[in-house]
Design goal:
- It is a single chain.
- Helices cover 31% and strands 35% of the residues.
- With 85 residues, the protein is of the alpha+beta class.
- It has one domain: Nucleotidyltransferase, domain 5, CATH 3.30.420.10.
- The longest helix is centred in the middle third of the chain and has 13 residues.
- The protein starts with 7 loop residues before the first strand and ends with a helix.
Length: 85
């Protein structure tokens, strides 16, 4: 299987939290590393999420959300340099 995005993230958005998982290249060739972390949906929490994704070099992601809870997450990540390019 070909890798389309070497550094990517999946976000599960809830009313009060966002559960994020990043997948990045591992230490050895062909190995992948995944890390999952939960963030608050407050402005501070969303800034931490953006910083965490940027620290992992994530450049692409997918978001799952019920209702309109995705909107502040999208707004916070839209301004993050690694996600908006």
């Amino acid at each position: 299987m070909d890798i389309v995005n070497a550094r990517c993230a999946g976000l599960d958005v809830h009313k009060a939290t966002v559960v994020a998982c990043v997948r990045v290249p591992g230490a050895r060739r062909g190995e992948r590393h995944a890390e999952t972390k939960t963030f608050a949906t407050t402005t501070y929490g969303l800034r931490q999420l953006a910083d965490w994704l940027q620290a992992h070099g994530a450049t692409a992601g997918a978001m799952e959300s019920t209702g309109v809870y995705w909107r502040p997450v999208y707004a916070a990540l839209e301004g993050a340099s690694s996600w908006s390019s």
